[in-house]
Inverse folding.
């Protein structure tokens, strides 16, 4: 077997949350390109179908589920549906999340805090418990990839909404703890910590708060934001046999932003 063969995902099946746009879309496309079938969940049916169609262009099967996994009850229902209708799942990517609200801590209601923590953390717990738990029970290993953020390590400048930093930091430790539990079952659990990528939400932020987005860019040692497609190869690595001996890792991809 050649080294590039270890990155192939033929015969595997991916379930990814928030898989219709931005980073989720690009990871789904990359993993389909590497040979896996995909199951996508998201809130927007049109963009879900577009991503599914593009995955199918690689000769792979692609299924879509329109739901909001930030609502724990919906998330539990979706996970069970995935196992019943599309299982077994070999690769889980907990990608859904976002800051969404620029609310200072002193002004954030308990209801809003819980809503946003559910979006960024509870959804990952529910999917990991259900989909990842099925990998452990089935035997034969598996891959769980959690999408955290460099805001797990550093606070965002010029922006509020500290629910995001809190949830993403918790995601990193959740990754490490579950990795320790599941290592004997050969289910690896790793996290990706993206920096500034020009996804659709950040494009919107650049119009509403251009000083925040431009200020971030000027502090990136490599001189620019990342593009969503830059994340695809890293996701393929973590999903494949090439990363067989890596678990509990938090991989930063930020153009060097957190170096200083």
């Amino acid at each position: 077997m050649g080294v590039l063969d270890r990155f192939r995902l033929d015969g595997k099946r991916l379930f990814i949350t928030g898989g219709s746009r931005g980073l989720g879309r690009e990871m789904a496309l990359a993993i389909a390109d590497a040979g896996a079938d995909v199951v996508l969940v998201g809130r927007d049916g049109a963009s879900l179908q577009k991503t599914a169609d593009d995955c199918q262009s690689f000769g792979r099967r692609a299924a879509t589920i329109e739901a909001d996994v930030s609502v724990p009850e919906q998330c539990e229902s979706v996970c069970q549906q995935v196992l019943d209708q599309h299982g077994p799942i070999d690769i889980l990517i907990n990608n859904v999340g976002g800051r969404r609200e620029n609310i200072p801590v002193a002004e954030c209601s308990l209801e809003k805090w819980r809503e946003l923590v559910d979006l960024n953390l509870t959804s990952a717990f529910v999917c990991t418990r259900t989909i990842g738990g099925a990998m452990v029970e089935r035997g034969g290993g598996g891959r769980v990839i959690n999408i955290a953020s460099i805001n797990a390590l550093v606070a965002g400048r010029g922006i509020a909404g500290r629910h995001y930093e809190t949830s993403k930091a918790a995601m990193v430790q959740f990754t490490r703890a579950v990795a320790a539990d599941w290592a004997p079952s050969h289910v690896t659990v790793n996290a990706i910590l993206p920096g500034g990528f020009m996804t659709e939400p950040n494009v919107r932020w650049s119009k509403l708060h251009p000083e925040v987005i431009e200020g971030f860019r000027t502090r990136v040692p490599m001189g620019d934001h990342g593009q969503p497609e830059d994340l695809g190869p890293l996701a393929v690595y973590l999903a494949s046999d090439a990363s067989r001996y890596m678990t509990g890792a938090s991989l930063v991809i930020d153009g060097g932003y957190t170096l200083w």
Observations:
- The radius of gyration is 17 Å.
- The mean pLDDT is 94.
- Residues 3-198+228-251 form a domain with the Rossmann fold fold (CATH 3.40.50.720).
- The chain has one domain: 3-198+228-251.
